[in-house]
Structures are given as C-alpha cells and as structure tokens.
Amino acid sequence: MLTSFLFFGVVLLSGCGQAERDTLRFAGETMGTTYHITLVADEDESLKVDATTLQKAVDVELQKINQHMSTYIPVSELMLFNSASAGELYTLSKPLEEVLRLSQQISERSGGAFDITVGPLVNLWGFGPGKHEDDVPDAEAIADAKAMMGYHKLELVDGQARKLADIKLDLSAIAKGYGVDWIADYLAQQGINHYMVEIGGEIRVKGTNGKGQPWRIAIEQPSMVQQSVHKAISLTDVGMATSGDYRNYFEQDGKRYSHTIDPQTGYPITHRLASVTVIARTSAEADGWATAINVLGPERGMEVANREKLAVYMIVKEDEGFSDRYSTAFEPYR
Ligand code: ADP
Ligand code: MG
C-alpha cells in the first residue's frame, strides 16, 4: 500500500484580543488540498463583498486554473498538450504560458534541479494520477523514464509551445503557487487591498491583517507527532512557499521515498533537508524555487539561494534533532 502522509508546513496565525477591522474568512478544497482566504477591509471601512458570492467566484477561478494545468483532469489544457505530437506548434492560454515560462526560468537558474518534464518519473514512482504502486520501480524503468525528460525539449515562442521530443509535463510543483497568485490578483481586481490567500501551504499576502499589522505566518517544525510552531514571521506584499519531505512520501522497508525527484538521478531526494521555505515576489516563484532548492539539498541549495538573492529558510536534520539555516536575503525576516 502506498501511504501518503500529509503535513502542512505553515500555520496561519490569527490575531486575538484587539479590535479587528472588518474581516472575512473562508476555506474550501482545490488541487487535492485545502485553501484558506482571509480578507480585511481598509481602515474605518467595511468590506463591500457578499461572502457567498465571492467564495463562488473564487471557486470558479480555481476551477479555471485546474482546467489549464491539472494532470488529474484528462482534458485539461496541459494534458491535451501532453498528448499532442512532438513538433506540433500549440497556442497556449495566458495562465499556461506564464507558468511554463516561469518554470523554464527556474529550471535554467537551478541547473535543471527543477524540471517540469519529470512527469513520467513522477508516475513511475506512484506520485501522479492513476495507479499507485507501493514498490520501488526497477532500474531499467527509471532509466527509460529519465531518458524521456529534459526541459530543453520544451520550446516556448511567442505564446506558443512545441515539444521537441515526446515529453510529458507535470506542473504540480508550481501550480498551487500560481493558483494562489491568480486568486490574489482576482481579489485585487475586486478592490480588496488586504488579503491572505493560501492553497496547501503556499501563500500570498497583501496589506495588513485585521489588526492593521503585517500578516503573521508560522513555519512548523517538521514532526510527525506534533505540530508545534517553529518560527513565526511577519510578511506583507509577498508570496511564500514551503517544500518538505515530511509532506508527501511513501515508505518501503523502513526507507522513505519523497515525491520530489532529483532529475539527475531519477530517484526521490534523500538528503537531510527537512523543509525549505522561500519568500519571493509571487507565490508561483516561491513554490517553484522551494521545490528546486529541496532537490539541490542543504549545501548546494543555499549556494544557489544566495547567488539568486532568494530569501530562503531551511530546517536541516542533524544526528540529533534539527538545525535551521538562512540565506542572506532572509535576514530581514528573522
Ligand atoms: P513540495 O511542497 O514538497 O515542494 P510540491 O507539491 O510543490 O511539493 O511539488 C511536488 C510535486 O512536483 C511532485 O508531486 C511532482 O509531481 C513534482 N515534482 C517532483 N520532482 C520535481 C522536480 N525535480 N521538478 C519539478 N517538479 C517536480
Ligand atoms: Mg513546490
């Protein structure tokens, strides 16, 4: 049996005690996980939105994103592109074009640690849609799936895409973040200046919380038994994402297999990086980079974080317990 453990790397700290501004909170489900949204009115104003109408509209927007990038919807735009022949020029929607372009940038800047052509390997290891095997695949099957990979085999030109070989894309490492940004932009268009949007631990915040202060987000200690607050940080006008091997994996013979795959080996990552949190301009960037740095591991990941001036916080497994490490750009958040 494949056993998936889900762990949420962040907690949303809600204020208590003080008088709050007019605040609306709602939650729902999307992309195989949950979402949470908090809206706050401008100072001395009340929110001019109807809760039911707004949540319905948010759900419609999330369904749109899923229709573009889900690997769980056989007729999503992404899946249609996946089944298109190599060489064919394919006109992309704006959301898919944006997320593919950003993915390719992160691939290049991470030296291929992030690679959305990982699809065949993800399925082989049992983390994609469809049949979930509990066994470690054999070396030959891994080599075959790995041979199909390579982000260089995807060409993007002027809103169009072309596969240069038979590749299968998987946007699971970045789509939640993109969905968060999409909803954030939607709320901004509705005239909302203060919000916190979260899907499965990926976040985007703007303005202030109900107390008129920066949003407080806690990064949890990676523990199976307790979910204690590890570190709380103040954020505004940024995206944040956490990637960690405690969140989704299977176990066989006492060994843990993460759903994050190292494209260089074709095997799930095995290093001592327990979780990595990235703060960036958008949630999509944070999401993609969190996965990329998770693949790179604690040492190379921190080198790349500093070279790219990314705000990164790592929790690293030690012989006893955990230690934390920060990139230079993360200093202001400590
Ligand atoms: P985490 O929060 O642990 O980073 P995500 O949900 O962001 O997890 O991304 C993990 C998913 O990304 C996997 O389930 C798989 O579909 C896909 N994936 C795995 N390895 C890679 C990789 N090296 N590059 C891009 N996507 C990957
Ligand atoms: Mg990710």
3D architecture notes:
29% of the residues lie in helices and 28% in strands. The protein is built from 7 helices and 18 strands. An 8-stranded antiparallel beta sheet has the order 2-3-7-8-11-16-17-18. Helix 3 packs parallel to helix 7. The chain is globular. The chain binds adenosine-5'-diphosphate and magnesium ion. The site of magnesium ion (MG) has 6 residues, from strand 11 and helix 7.
Name its key features.
alpha+beta, 7 helices, 8-stranded antiparallel β-sheet, disordered N terminus, 18 strands, 334 residues
Quickly describe the structure:
The chain has 334 residues and is of the alpha+beta class. It contains 7 helices and 18 strands.
